UniProtKB/TrEMBL annotation, chain A:
PANTHER family: ABC TRANSPORTER, MEMBRANE PROTEIN, HEMIN TRANSPORT SYSTEM PERMEASE PROTEIN HRTB-RELATED
Tagged with keyword DNA repair: no
Recorded superkingdom: Bacteria
Annotated transmembrane regions: 15-36, 240-260, 280-311, 323-343
Keywords from the named record: Membrane, Transmembrane, Transmembrane helix, Transport
Name listed for the protein in its UniProt record: Peptide ABC transporter permease
TrEMBL record, chain B:
Keywords for this protein: ATP-binding, Cell membrane, Membrane, Nucleotide-binding, Transport
Subcellular location: Cell membrane
Family designation: Belongs to the ABC transporter superfamily. HrtA family.
Protein name per Swiss-Prot or TrEMBL: Putative hemin import ATP-binding protein HrtA
Function: Part of the ABC transporter complex hrt involved in hemin import. Responsible for energy coupling to the transport system.
Phylogenetic placement of the source organism: Bacteria, Bacillati, Bacillota, Bacilli, Bacillales
Species the sequence originates in: Sporolactobacillus putidus
Cited Pfam families: ABC_tran (PF00005)
């Protein structure tokens, strides 16, 4: 640390350039992680709000709630600690009297069941033509009392309340009654046993024990989320980009330190001639990498936090600080691994050549 | 027991056509409190002799004992430890770490080795060498002679039992050169070290207890220079 730190102090420009590069790379890692996190949130946060264990869909629906149809009769036969019927339809909504369209996920739920939205503003829907919508729609100018027209349906919904954290598959959720969804989907409501819904959400620690008929399937909630269209490919893409950045960091810092080490061959040789061990020199190179990486990560973190403050609400970046700290640590670790490229060079330095007497 | 003892040590560089005998089989020993000069022309094998004595390279034949331990039987790691603990090098080219101030050159040694000089001893050494005012400077801001004096201070700082100096006065004016020699002589006596100085400057041999000449790798004691003046 002593050699490392004194060298950094005496060649500030050289080392600030390295720290600068590390800063940009850690900033990129942090923003990508924020973006990955943000996109994941927009895909799944409505489902996360349910804190459910599984969802029961029709066998032919291949994990997609929109494609699943279950009769209310079948739904009532499901055992399980807590169950909640859900109906869903993807639609384009439009504020009546304007041309502004927005794609949305309309979810029909039963008032009082655990998947009913927590109203953060206004009140819960009471009638068939009332709705509680994701508060992200406020950014589009929607407010309490507005009428929403639904594409391919004469049904209109009036906003009576807003709820927080209600995004599903990158779209805002519009919560309403099951009857309203049936009206939009099939033209009329049918709450008898033959009436159709999308599926049943279950909250029960022992999901395996739930028995369903052959026409239905129990899907653990995490695999339901993984099957949200686009969710898994997006997640893999972001993860790949972040991992690849780590490889780049490792190689870049490895090259930097290798060049610096080559540059210092004669100094290291002289120190070895005096009897200073290779181990001491290697530790000092690793310590130096550690210092540079810590500076880079801290600066990158600072920029990320500042960026977070100035981010427009619409930007799909969600900074999860524990994850950023985790990635920061990996970043530092990976940089230190890069510095190990120089170990062999240091070990091989011949003190005799260095003193050249 | 001699601090340094070379038994039948020889060194041959290269093989076949390019073979160079840099050191013919020699016997050599240096005792505590002895300041020894080795004088010879360029290319005569002085540096070869010194680097073998200091465990920086292995001889082709023979054994090198430092305080009774045979260096030729040790691996590089152990030899490095002996260099660190027992030997002080003053090399032909100045060998300071460019990014450490003079002060920090000493602190580095404190980090790798115990039982170095204490603060008073160091201050005295620095003022004896006339480099006390240079403590905050980097090597790049020192003159050649100042660098050399810092290097000498560094070598003495670790309290080695064997001091090996390759042309320590090469970049000094004669006044400074004599001063450096008297410091080396003083340290040798007071701290009971064995000191070997390789040089081509005949004027320095007055400070030495023994003088050897080396010509074409052949080391011979210079008769009649078992100087009596150092005895007093
Ligand atoms: N690594 C080597 N490979 C081959 N020959 C070498 C090597 N090192 C030294 N020599 C040869 O060995 C002989 C002695 O070299 P050495 O460096 O010991 O001389 P020196 O007395 O220190 O000279 P100078 O006063 O110029 O420093 C020279 O002929 C030199 O060319
Ligand atoms: Mg030489």
């Amino acid at each position: 640390m002593f050699l490392a730190w004194n060298e950094i102090k005496s060649a500030k420009l050289r080392f600030s350039l390295i720290v600068g590069v590390l800063t940009l790379m850690s900033y990129l890692v942090f923003l990508l992680s924020g973006l990955a996190n943000g996109m994941a949130t927009l895909n799944r946060e409505a489902v996360d709000q349910w804190r459910a264990s599984a969802i029961i869909l029709s066998q032919d629906a291949s994990s997609s709630l929109a494609q699943s149809t279950v009769t209310l009769h079948d739904a009532s036969g499901i055992s399980g600690k807590q169950t909640a019927e859900i109906a869903q339809i993807l639609a384009t909504i439009r504020k009546s009297g304007t041309n502004h369209k927005e794609s949305a996920v309309i979810m029909g739920v039963q008032k009082g069941q655990f998947i009913a939205p927590k109203v953060t503003e206004g009140r819960m829907f009471n009638r068939v033509n009332e709705t509680v919508v994701a508060d992200s729609l406020k950014a589009n100018g929607l407010k309490l009392g507005d009428q929403l027209s639904i594409s391919s349906s004469a049904q209109k919904l009036m906003i009576v309340g807003f709820t927080h954290n209600a995004e599903f598959n990158l779209s805002p959720v519009v919560y309403t009654s099951i009857a309203a969804v049936q009206k939009i989907k099939y033209g009329s409501a049918d709450l008898s046993g033959k009436g159709l819904i999308g599926g049943i959400v279950v909250r029960d620690p022992n999901v395996d024990r739930i028995k369903v008929g052959s026409k239905l399937q129990v899907i653990p909630i995490e695999s339901f989320i993984e099957n949200i269209p686009g969710y898994t490919p997006e997640k893999i893409t972001f993860e790949f980009m972040i991992y690849f950045l780590f490889v780049i960091v490792c190689v870049t810092i490895g090259i930097f330190l290798y060049v610096l080490t080559i540059h210092k061959t004669s100094i290291f040789g002289i120190l070895k001639a005096q009897g200073i061990s290779s181990g001491f020199l290697i530790r000092s190179v690793i310590a130096q990498t550690f210092l540079l990486a810590v500076f880079g990560v801290l600066a990158g973190f600072l920029f990320t936090v500042i960026t977070g403050f100035f981010l427009p609400a619409a930007a799909p970046i969600t900074l999860n600080y524990p994850i950023l700290v985790f990635y920061g640590c990996i970043f530092i670790l990976v940089a230190m691994i890069g510095s190990l490229f120089s170990v062999q060079t240091i070990v091989r330095i011949d003190p005799l050549k260095a003193i050249g007497g | 027991m001699a601090v340094l003892e070379l038994l039948h040590v020889s060194k041959i560089y290269g093989k076949g056509h390019t073979e160079v005998t840099a050191l013919k089989p020699i016997r050599f020993s240096a005792d505590k409190g002895e300041l020894i000069a080795v004088i010879g022309p360029s290319g005569s094998g002085k540096s070869t002799f010194l680097t073998i004595a200091g465990g920086l390279q292995k001889p082709t034949g023979g054994s090198v004992f430092i305080n009774g331990r045979d260096l030729t039987r040790l691996n590089e790691k152990k030899r490095a430890l002996i260099r660190l603990r027992e030997i002080g090098f003053i090399l032909q080219s100045s060998h300071l770490v460019p990014y450490l101030t003079v002060d920090n050159q000493f602190r580095l040694l404190d980090r790798v080795k115990k039982r170095n000089m204490n603060k008073d001893e160091r201050e005295k050494l620095l003022s004896d060498l006339g480099i006390r005012k240079l403590k905050k400077k980097y090597p790049a801001d020192l003159s050649g002679g100042e660098k050399q004096r810092v290097a000498i201070a560094k070598a003495l700082y670790t309290n080695p039992s064997l001091l090996l100096a390759d042309e320590p006065t090469a970049s000094l004016d004669s006044g400074r050169a004599f001063e450096v020699m008297s410091i080396l002589s003083h340290e040798t006596k007071e701290k009971n070290k064995a000191t070997i100085v390789v040089t081509h400057d005949n004027r320095l041999i007055h400070y030495c207890d023994k003088v050897y000449t080396i010509v074409d790798g052949e080391l011979t004691p210079l008769s009649g220079t078992d100087s009596a003046d150092a005895e007093t």
